[in-house]
Amino acid sequence: MDNRKADVHQIIADTKDNDLKNIGEKILHNQRINFDEGVMLFEKASLPFVGALANFVREEKHGDKTYFNRNFHIEPTNVCVFTCAFCSYSRLYAHREEGWELSIEDMLNIVKKYDGKPVTEVHIVGGVHPKMNLYFFVELIEKIKAHRPDLHIKGFTAVELDYMFRKAKVSIDEGMKILHNAGLQSMPGGGAEIFHPEIREQICADKVNAEGWLNIHRAAHKLGMHTNATMLYGHVEKYFHRVDHMERLRQLQDETHGFNTFIPLKFRNKDNDMNNVPESSVIEDMKLYAVARLYMDNFPHLKAYWPMLGRQNAQLTLSFGVNDLDGTIDDTTKIYSMAGSEEQKPSLSTAELVSLIKQVKREPVERDTLYNEIKNYKEMDVAELEINPAYN
User: Fold this and answer.
1) If I label 241, which of 51, 140, 213, 230 is the partner at 20 to 30 A Cα–Cα?
2) Residues 283, 326: contact at Cβ < 8 Å?
3) pTM, two decimal places
4) What is the share, in percent, of the chain residues with pLDDT greater than 90?
5) How far is CA 50 from CA 9, 67, 325, in A?
6) Residue 224 zone, left/alpha/beta (φ > 0; ψ -120 to 50; rest)
7) Do residues 91 and 40 touch, judged by C-beta distance below 8 A?
8) 16-32: buried (b, 16+ CB within 10 Å) or exposed (e) per residue?
9) Are 21 and 12 in contact (CB under 8 A)?
10) What confidence score (pLDDT) does residue 336 get?
11) How many CB atoms lie within 10 A of CB 43?
12) pLDDT category, 335, cuts 50, 70, 90?
């Protein structure tokens, strides 16, 4: 038995609770934990217990490798027809003068800003604007592809797509084929929130339900597209709501194997209709990441979105199951900064992100959207990166 496994085995052996001991043994032997055991980890397990197990699983899957990519965001609009209680970002269509609406030309100009730069992905996501329909985005995707064929286009939450498809009067399968044929290559995981109808009714009653969200991702997977999945946590949900959410995702992944990454998203309470709800503590955050890594056994990757958590807390997650910190991004993404996230101007150079990962003794690996490794920075000196314009 290697030292790492022996250490975890000792932590399990020292646990007084037999239920937790059984869960620990299952995880140590690569056996799936069930719904009740997932809830039990939230209710009964200590942070050191779940943290040690999650770090063990993370290192079994990925060693010290911590992934990031060089990407940028386009947010076409924050005008939205939906009224989610947790959202600080959107402006109702009736008050659209308070928001922004980008034209196709505006968005192409954003893409052109990165000409000659080694970014690999553009991430397109925003509000649900009734005039930005399916064919508007088909034209946008086609023009981006014509301008820069090598750029991977990841775009649109299932919430945006559900509205586009209904407005265009096409089925989910038809709509996904139209976008995929235009050049859409993968999907982010937004709009999942909490799947359980009891919570969804409270926080986002008017947008696509759990079944609709899952069906859109299923359709993307059928086309060979990879997608991500999120969960908005730390508001009015209970532990069993979180596990229910993860269970539904785990079942779809068993069916399709199309998800790359699970991304827990921390609720932020600034300037929204849930500003009376306190935010979760850092301890709660780390426990959530750890339990997610243990429960989502068929998801290859667990991501912490560093602009939401802040740089130091994102570093901390790397000891609680996380193996991906998203990307360099830039300061154009406003979804979390408007909600009071730690990073008000979320932008990191490659050198800064590599340094962030190395500071906690992990191995920085640049990836593309589909987790093909582009460059391993393990042996590269951060000081050399900082003076090289290619990494800034």
Assistant:
1) 51
2) no
3) 0.91
4) 72
5) 13, 22, 20
6) left
7) no
8) eeeebeebbebbbeeee
9) yes
10) 45
11) 9
12) very low
**Mean per-residue pLDDT, 200-206:** 90
Q: 269 falls in which pLDDT band (50, 70, 90)?
A: confident
Rg of the chain over all Cα atoms, to the nearest angstrom: 21
Three-class secondary structure assignment of 93-120: HHHHHHCCECCHHHHHHHHHCCCCCCCC
The distance in angstroms from the start CA to the end CA of the chain is 43
Residue whose token pair is 């490794």: 373
Answer for the pair 325, 356: CB distance below 8 angstroms, yes or no: yes
Angle at 358 between CA 352 and CA 362, to 5 degrees: 135
Looking at residue 129, its pLDDT comes to 85
Alpha-carbon span 194 to 123, nearest angstrom: 22
Tokens of 256: 């399709």
Element (H, E) at 187: strand 186-187
DSSP labels, 229-256: EEEEESSS--HHHHHHHHHHHHHHHHHH
Please write the tens of the pLDDT for every residue from 287-308. Answer: 999 999 999 999 999 999 888 8
Give tens-digit pLDDT for 207-216. 999 999 999 9
**Is 94 a residue whose pLDDT tops 60?**
no
**The two three-digit tokens of residue 331, written as one number:** 């300061």
Residue in the block written with tokens 């609720």? 267
The count of C-alpha atoms lying within 13 angstroms of the C-alpha of 248, restricted to the half-sphere facing its C-beta, is 23
CB 328 within 8 A of CB 68: yes
Which DSSP symbol is given to 126?
-
Q: What is the pLDDT of residues 215-242, one digit of tens each?
A: 999 999 999 999 999 999 999 999 999 9
Average pLDDT, the chain: 90
Provide the pLDDT for residue 382.
77
Token code pair at residue 361: 């003794």
Q: Which candidate, 263, 390, 259, places its Cα nearest to that of 326?
A: 263
Strand-pair category, 121-124 with 152-155: parallel
Q: What pLDDT score does 123 carry?
A: 94
Q: Which pair of structure tokens corresponds to residue 59?
A: 């290192």
The Cα 185–Cα 145 span in angstroms is: 11
Over 90: is that where the pLDDT of 110 sits?
yes
Determine phi and psi for 69, rounding to 5 degrees.
-135, 165
User: Using an 8 Å Cβ cutoff, are 267 and 274 in contact?
Assistant: yes
Contact 285, 265 (CB under 8 A): no
